Every structure is written in C-alpha cells, then in structure tokens.
Amino acid sequence: MNRSGPVLGIALVLCGLCAALGYVAGERSAVPAASGGKHLPRLIDQLGLRAEQVEQIDRLLTAHDAQVESLVERQREQLRGPLAESLDQTETKILAVLDETQRSQYLELTRD
Known about the structure:
The chain is rod-shaped and about 70 Å long. It has one domain. By secondary structure, it is mainly α. The protein has helices spanning about 5-25, 35-45, 50-95, 100-110. It is about 85% helix and about 0% strand. It has 4 helices and no strands.
C-alpha cells in the first residue's frame, strides 16, 4: 500500500498554511503601488486639474498610501502569532494521527 499520497497531501496543506503565514508576515507581499501614481493621471485628464491641484492631490494620495501601509503592517503583526500558533496546532494534530514511520517521513518532507 502506497502511503506517500496522503503524506504528500498533508505536506501540501501545511505548505499552503506556511505560504499564508509568509504572506501575512510580509515575506511575499507588499502594499500595492501608490494609488496616487495609479489614479492621478486619470484625474488630471478627466477633471482638467491645474498644477497646484495636482500637487495637493498627489500629497493627499501619498499620505493616504502611507496610512494604508501602516494599517496593513499592523494587521500582519497581529496575525503573525495566531497563524503560527494555528499551524503548530495543526501539525501537532497531524503528527498524532501518523504512526512512527509516517511521522518520520512527514517531518522529513515538511522540514525541507
């Protein structure tokens, strides 16, 4: 009986959880590019903004982007611990289901 299928499936689930943790931790993600850079040209064209309006709106959008980045970073920090704890608990439960040989194989698969 080939037992590698379920073990690999479990490993893939844990890899997904690790990827989510990495994402939240900021290792794979970044706050999107400044919205001012994205939206300002359209506003200039559609509203016919004057130079002083462009400068003011650009400053407002830049400040907004900094606020968004700060909020996202705080959320990452708040989720980092609970996600790591959830991953640890799930792995402990998975290990409890496996026999000794499977545990050894599982740990080898997931630690690489």
